[in-house]
Amino acid sequence: MHFQWYPGHMTKAKRMMQENIKLIDLVIELVDARIPVSSRNPEIDELGKNKARLILLNKSDLAEEKWNDAWAEYFKGKGYSVLKVNSRKGGGVKSIQGVIQEACKEKIERDRKRGILNRPVRAMVVGIPNVGKSTFINALAGKACTKTGNKPGVTKGKQWIRLNKNVELLDTPGILWPKFEDQTVGLRLAFIGSIKDEILNTEELAMELIGFLKEKYTGILKDKYQIEEAEDHFECLRSIAESRHCLVRGNELDTEKAAKILLDDFRNGRLGKITLEFPEDYA
């Protein structure tokens, strides 16, 4: 499978971010804790250079805790402030204000020396589609101030949100980058739902996921679907279809429906806590 998805509004969004970066003190970048590097847009580092940086390992409840910790250390080693969060349930959100102040302490100190007091920190919230930016902002603001949806591309324009007298946030649309140099990155993004399912072959995608799970999380499919983990990935998918009574006319197994069930179970944490990439991959 070849992965690419870069609709026109993303070019416009990137331009808008470049125009607004001069107003910004801090770039808050949300990544998916299951794929912390693959879910980072490489263009953000260029956009955010000379700015304070905070990486939020979002959806940390869906990833293995030991790998969340290892990833936090990895990014701290590269000079970022890091926090594990779970925006949907509010985990880690209370710590954000303190972390923002800490990440921007040099700027706040510079302002103080110049006699500028109480100017709010202006933070731009960035991340790829479906990484949970809107849910995070809503959790932080304590009210539904941005649209959210469990599909990529819900936020289309920019919006400023005043959290309190200390912090203002600029929400931005999720943007990917024009070309994935490494198709493994595209595959991982497809697994977590950051590329539109409509342009993917879901059966092929599910078989790729089956291959990964059999290698790294042996027994997880057997426990979830009460199946034997067959050598052949397609046979595995057929077993899931049988276990979940996915049938089409004439009692044929509906492997496409089974593929959607498997992907949905993975994306929503029903298979358990799963991390898809590890710091040693990027050592």
From TrEMBL:
Domain CP-type G: 10-178
Gene3D superfamilies: 1.10.1580.10, P-loop containing nucleotide triphosphate hydrolases (3.40.50.300)
Pfam families: MMR_HSR1 (PF01926)
Residue spans crossing the bilayer: none
Role noted for this protein: Required for a late step of 50S ribosomal subunit assembly. Has GTPase activity.
GTP-binding keyword on record: yes
Keywords: Cytoplasm, GTP-binding, Nucleotide-binding
Residues given in the record as GTP binding sites: N58, K59, S60, D61, N86, S87, N130, V131, G132, K133, S134, T135, G174
Organism per entry: Faecalicatena orotica
Entry's family note: Belongs to the TRAFAC class YlqF/YawG GTPase family. MTG1 subfamily.
Location within or outside the cell: Cytoplasm
NCBIfam families in UniProt: GTPase_YlqF
GO cellular component: cytoplasm
Gene Ontology molecular function terms on file: GTP binding; GTPase activity
UniProt KW Cytoplasm keyword: yes
Biological process according to GO: translation
The protein's name in its UniProt record: Ribosome biogenesis GTPase A
